[in-house]
Specification:
The chain has 269 residues and is of the alpha+beta class. 31% of the residues lie in helices and 27% in strands. The chain folds into 3 domains: 91 residues, Helix Hairpins (Orthogonal Bundle), CATH 1.10.287.110; 71 residues, Urease metallochaperone UreE, N-terminal domain (HSP40/DNAj peptide-binding domain); 73 residues, HSP40/DNAj peptide-binding domain (Sandwich), CATH 2.60.260. The strands form 4 sheets. It has a 4-stranded mixed beta sheet. Strands 1-5-4 form a 3-stranded mixed beta sheet, with no helix packed on it. The chain has a two-stranded antiparallel sheet with strand order 2-3. It is rod-shaped, with a radius of gyration of 37 Å.
Length: 269
């Protein structure tokens, strides 16, 4: 295809001559004015090439026998200049394959050690995709985790897009979340604190711990267990578990109250 002939200019035409010829030809053949659409596309292709000094130089080189079977387009230019300067331009930065964002629900306990989850989503081309992904430890509610190369793959000549999963974390445990720490309000009656008690508790990791509550422990006092809270994201750092003793008063009969009153009098003697 002779771009100079399409625009009706000589090969030594100046930038100004090219611009003038392009305006005249594009107005004459514009489809909205009843012109030929294919001819209009050729005019735009010719001007797009010749107005750029680098593209024009390569085109002239090809026309003069410097290249065989050369399909003059932007991608070829990228390949040629990439080879000239010793580095191929990274097409992945301009991949037309899009990233995809989906939502996935987790239970709080699933964020403690990380686990494999099955995620089902639909690509822009309508194809369904089912994959197994690893949930990093410490994911929090609303957090977005990116999985490379699992997004759109419509354009096979380009790298696929990414999959972005936004997690909804449901706390269906007995623990209250405070940053990376967990709080457990342990229900006890007054006599448990007064006399002491052994009480078993299961941490969010599933570990069983036997607590020895000492006689005379004060109500609302707190016991700390290190490294039994939530993980920091994708890290081995971990919060603590705090156990607060929440006391309830037992319902006593009149006779029981009388006995306690006598004990109180003895203590005050």
């Amino acid at each position: 295809m002779d771009y100079y002939s399409i625009l009706g200019v000589q090969k030594d035409a100046s930038d100004k001559d090219l611009k003038t010829a392009y305006k005249k030809a594009s107005m004459q053949h514009h489809p909205d004015r009843g012109g030929d659409e294919n001819k209009f596309k050729e005019i735009n292709e010719a001007y797009s090439t010749l107005k750029d000094p680098q593209k024009r130089g390569m085109y002239d080189h090809q026309q003069n026998g410097g290249g065989q079977g050369f399909n003059f387009n932007t991608q070829n230019m990228e390949d040629i200049f990439g080879a000239m300067f010793g580095q191929r331009q990274q097409r992945s930065n301009r991949s037309p394959n899009k990233s995809i964002r989906v939502h996935h629900t987790l239970n709080l306990i699933d964020t403690v050690e990380g686990k494999q989850e099955v995620v089902n989503y639909t690509l822009p081309n309508g194809r369904s995709k089912i994959i197994n992904v690893t949930i990093p430890k410490g994911v929090i509610n609303g957090q977005i985790v990116r999985y490379s190369g699992l997004g759109e793959d419509t354009y096979s000549q380009y790298p696929p897009g990414n999959l972005e999963i936004q997690f909804r974390v449901i706390n269906n445990t007995q623990f209250v979340i405070k940053d990376y720490d967990l709080i457990y309000n342990m229900p006890l009656d007054y006599f448990d604190l007064l006399l002491g008690k052994d009480q078993m508790i299961r941490t969010i990791s599933g570990r069983k711990i036997n607590l020895k509550i000492k006689a005379g422990t004060n109500p609302n006092s707190t016991l700390s267990i290190n490294n039994e809270g939530l993980y920091h994201f994708n890290s081995e750092r971990r919060g603590n578990l705090y156990i607060t003793f929440k006391v309830s008063m037992p319902e006593l009969t009149t006779r029981q109250l009388e006995i306690i009153d006598k004990i109180k009098l003895d203590l005050n003697k």
